[in-house]
Amino acid sequence: MTAGFGHRFADPALLETALRHRSAGAPHNERLEFLGDAVLALLVAEALHARWPQADEGALTRARSQLVRESHLAALARGLGIGERLVMGPGEMKSGGRHRDSILADALEAVVGAIYSDGGLDACRAAVLPWFEDGLAAMPTGKVEKDPKTRLQEWLQARQWARPEYELVEARGPEHARHFRVRARAGEPVLVLEGEGQSLRAAEQAAAEALLVALEARHPRRGRAAAGASPTA
Question: N or C: which end of the chain has fewer CB within 10 A?
């Protein structure tokens, strides 16, 4: 039997598969990743539902999204030492795949899938939820703010204006340490601002935040009213 990640595996081959990237050949971890993604969403949703009895669906959904987002899962994977245990093809190793957020997050989901397959839901819950304890404890109960892209979209919808457009301007750096620059445009007349981040999503969020701040400054009265306005306001 193999101990790992808070669970003792009756079938060690499941953990071996979970830690095998597709670049190393079959069997690899993509099927376990698929399963783990669904199980993880359930476990986090269940934990939030129990901890936040007064929170509405929107707050619960936003909190779950923050806890299972790629960057957070990758950080957890680093803390668990998953990167050092990954089996990868030589090309992926050379390009820094062990340090890439997407690969680490996928591997963590695969490990969740392996634990679930080996021990069932109760064993998976006992092993996995402690990984998220710090994140759960740090969240302001029931008051998770919407992300900038969502807030920008709602601000524009309240005025029946066109959806924002995002354009990748630049992606630089090695594969394991990429840096992205994104241009966002929206408003009437159109405003164009940029944002940067270590993932495409983060750069888009930064651009949306900058654009929303500028739009609210340009339309202060309507900007203040938008928070509680109907789409026809």
Answer: N
Residue 1 has pLDDT above 70, yes or no: no
Residues annotated as catalytic are 37, 109
Q: Which of 117, 138, 159 is the last residue of a domain?
A: 138
Q: What is the DSSP string of 44-93?
A: HHHHHHHH-TT--HHHHHHHHHHHTSHHHHHHHHHHHTHHHH-B--HHHH
Chosen domain end from 112, 138, 164: 138
What is the Cα–Cα distance from 186 to 188, expressed in whole angstroms? 7
Which residue range forms the structural domain that includes residue 15? 2-138
Beta strand 2-4 with 7-9 is antiparallel
Cα separation, 159 vs 93, whole angstroms: 49
Between CA 212 and CA 220 the distance in angstroms is 11
Distance in angstroms (rounded) separating the CA atoms of residues 121 and 14: 15
**Are the C-beta atoms of residues 32 and 18 closer than 8 Å to each other?**
yes
